[in-house]
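User: I'll paste a sequence; please echo it back and then give the predicted structure.

Assistant: Echoing your sequence first, then the prediction.
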Amino acid sequence: MRFNYMRIKKFKCQNQGLNIITRTKDVIFAIIKEKYLDYYENFI
């Protein structure tokens, strides 16, 4: 029982880590898109 609980906890932590990574990626892509759009508009 205790071993199972630890496994679930570990899995949740790993899952949270993945969510943070994907969220960070989304944020970085959003920033790049915004900067690129600003540059593109200025270029035109």
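Residues 30 and 36 are 10 Å apart (CA to CA). The chain has one helix and no strands.
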